[in-house]
Amino acid sequence: MRKISLLIASASLACAAPGYRAPEVPVPAAYDVNRAVAVPQAQKTVSQNDTESTSAVHLSTALAAAPFWTSLGDTTLTALVREAQRANLDVRIAESRLSGARASRRLARLDLIPTITGTGSTARLQNSLAQTPGLTSQAPAFNLYDVGFDASWEVDFFGRVNRNVQAQSALVESTQHGLEDVQVSVAAEVARTYFELRGAQQRLAVAQRNAANQRNTVRITEDRLAAGRGTAFDTERAKSVLYLTLSATPGLEAEIAADRNRLAVLLGKSADALPAALLDSGPQPKLPDTLYVGSPDQLVRRRPDVLRAERLYAAQSLFVGAARAEYLPRVTLGARMGYTSTKVDSLFRRGNSRLLLGPTVTFPLFDVGRVRERVEAATAGQEEAQAEYNATVLEALAESQAALVSYDRAHARLSILESAVRSSARAADLAQQRFEAGLTDFLQVLDAERTLLDAENQLAAGRTSAATALVAAYKAVGGTWPIK
Q1: Is the pLDDT of residue 316 over 90?
Q2: Using an 8 Å Cβ cutoff, are 12 and 156 in contact?
């Protein structure tokens, strides 16, 4: 008996899963935008030597206490994000997936308690002569009634059931982080689409404003032509610039309509049910100079997709332990109690009761091959989950670094574009004044107007790019999204 106990103990230790420890992936100590945007000395031009390329944005290792969109001061954007978190269909799908995972965990927990089922049956039986030796004629048929209950409980000596429960709990946590990841993606998509909508509206306003100025220019050239002081060439060139400006408006209107439809889908409603505030043109919010992004180490500990992958790896590790426990004996306590009689009215009489009570021990004596393959399958799932976790961490680090650099450069580009718009506006005013004073020809006026329109368009597009880069940066670092 002692040898058998030692053998079982040794097998238990051999089949036990090692202590769980999350995979370790090296991460940098901090984000470094300055190093990413630096130009090698050998590649610098003269102008670059005069104005060094430095970071335009300060990265704080602190974490913001609220979602970034609330700090932009745009109440329409805040309302859209909140509505999307409530009504978006992808969020609802993820919530349903989480409910299913919780149900599976509750189902696994039920294996820790006895299983009790009620039974009841009725049958008409007639034995053959072969079943009753010595009889010369077949026995008469009779009815047999049976009621009772069966109970069974697996005594979890080696932790198989408990590991399954722990694995299901880890899967619930993984699914919870998956829901958070969907919420982050939906909020980011709403913000990105909203900024693109506002950017298209601004570019349309720029085109309409320039078209109004260019119509005035056309009238001036027509008046000068009628007075004999202008040429038909100037008039036609002015009309050509006006028509080119007007040709951009249909495409911008289509882009605005597409953005509104996209927002409607994200909010789980039709386009005609969108808030009235989206129908009017609105300014782009002022973009921050400081981003509260934390550190790469905090990224690994708070980004939802990384946490989801880590919990999935934990679950697969526990499944390996549960599969290895199949090598060991399984002890089940069972009981069958009830009443059996040939007549219904005498079913519960004394002497008709039945009882079967005792333990059952099962062991995969000739079924070790199946157990081994289940262990191999679980181990492969664990290795896959570990590789997925490592890939998710590396992708998160690369994505966050790239997103922060993109926002930094987009933010730096805005100041240059604003200077370009101011210079272009002054140049357009000077060209108009010189033309009216007869100091230059009309081509300089048209060229200055085209340059101003292009600069204003680039500035509007640059503001949109910077705003969407801000969204991408906060989404990448997994911070400031306390969606609960």
Answers
A1: yes
A2: no
